[in-house]
From TrEMBL:
InterPro entries: AAA+_ATPase, ABC_transp_ATP-bind, ABC_transporter-like_ATP-bd, ABC_transporter-like_CS, Oligopep_ABC_C, P-loop_NTPase. The keyword ATP-binding applies. GO terms for biological process: peptide transport; transmembrane transport. Keywords: ATP-binding, Nucleotide-binding, Transport. Residues 8-254 form the ABC transporter domain. GO terms for molecular function: ATP binding; ATP hydrolysis activity. Belongs to the ABC transporter superfamily. GO terms for cellular component: plasma membrane. It holds the Pfam family ABC_tran. It is a peripheral membrane protein. It is found in: Cell inner membrane. This is ABC transporter ATP-binding protein. It comes from Mesorhizobium hungaricum. Signal peptide: none annotated.
Length: 318
């Protein structure tokens, strides 16, 4: 079978922010500026119809990657390349974490979903636009009559369904989902995740799914990349990563997931905090929190290296 080119290919991408206090712009030369390396040398690819999840604690650079993918940030190094869509250029949309602030409260839901259809001229007549809006509402588990209501009339889970309908209204084939269920009640999270999985199968969608919560991504992902302080420290097929995590940070992250089969087992809370990306530790950024760290880890930064299980890991201690 010919090897299909990935739908998304990210190669050695870096995104740094100048976080010098404003007055430094005038009085201090460039070399003394403070630079925050939010993403620093990240590479991954996503095949068509698959899900890559990016996980890690707050501040690791996950949202910055999401913004790089949809063009809200420009990489200062490296490249983000998309393959072709089914009919013309690939359309990429983002689903945001907060379904309360991402929908215009003054617009009826029907208009929110119709807007991209009209702007992109995807339907010719008003009646066709209305029919498409009704179809999209049903696709996400709402009813066509919901088109006449305003966002405030809906729960958080329903609003996230509306956001998904709006994204699909563009005929997007690639969705970047930044913590799409983190603002929702736990009982509603599973419903929205199931909807996203069903839509993926039905429409052949490709996802980059961002979360700080490994248990959320477990059943969503084909592949998982674990980020720490702007870099990927481990990347593998989801089943492999959950069954046999290799990087000490991945192991710690997995240890924080509640085990439904052994709810009374002692869990180890993640000790310590992610260091500041403005002044990261020398060597492996995880070394101050790592029980396996030795001299080399405090001096050199480990590269992501492929292993026999098809995964990649960046650790000197393995
Ligand atoms: N526009 C910006 N200007 C300056 N610093 C930024 C900017 N955007 C992000 N950062 C910093 O970059 C680092 C990575 O942020 P990012 O939001 O990508 O992390 P994250 O893993 O998504 O965390 P969270 O889950 O809290 O959103 C953080 O230290 C953050 O403060």
């Amino acid at each position: 079978m010919p090897h299909e080119a990935p739908l998304l290919e990210v190669d050695d991408v870096a995104c740094w922010f100048d976080v010098s206090p404003p007055f430094l712009n005038r009085v201090i030369e460039g070399k003394q500026r403070k630079v925050l390396k939010a993403v620093d040398g990240v590479s991954f690819s996503v095949p068509r119809g698959k899900t890559l999840s990016i996980v890690g604690e707050s501040g690791c650079g996950k949202s910055t990657i999401a913004r790089l993918l949809v063009g809200m940030h420009k990489p200062m190094r490296g490249s983000v390349r998309f393959g072709a869509g089914a009919s013309g250029p690939l359309r990429v949309q983002m689903i945001f974490q907060d379904p309360y602030s991402s929908l215009n409260p003054r617009w009826r839901v029907g208009d929110i979903i119709a807007e991209p259809i009209r702007t992109l001229r995807l339907r010719a007549t008003l009646a066709e636009v209305d029919a498409r809006v009704a179809e999209l509402l049903q696709l996400v588990g709402l009813s066509p009559g919901d088109a006449d209501r305003y966002p405030h009339a809906f729960s958080g889970g329903q609003r996230q369904r509306i956001s998904i309908a709006r994204a699909l209204a563009t005929e997007a084939e690639f969705l970047v989902c930044d913590e799409p269920t983190s603002a929702l009640d736990v009982s509603v999270q599973a419903q929205v995740l199931n909807l996203m999985r069903d839509l993926q199968k039905e429409l052949g969608l490709t996802y980059v799914f961002i979360s700080h919560n490994l248990s959320v991504v477990r059943h969503m992902s084909d592949r998982v990349a674990v980020m720490y302080l702007g870099r990927i420290v481990e990347e593998a097929d989801a089943d492999t990563l959950f069954a046999n995590p290799r990087h000490p940070y991945t192991k710690l992250l997995l240890d924080t997931i509640p085990d439904l089969e052994a709810p009374n087992r002692d869990r180890h809370p993640l000790a310590g905090e992610v260091p500041s990306p403005i002044d990261p530790p020398r060597g492996c950024a995880f070394n101050p929190r790592c029980s396996l760290a030795f001299d080399q880890c405090r001096r050199e930064q480990p590269e992501l290296i492929g292993g026999e299980n098809g995964g990649n890991v960046a650790c000197f201690a393995l």
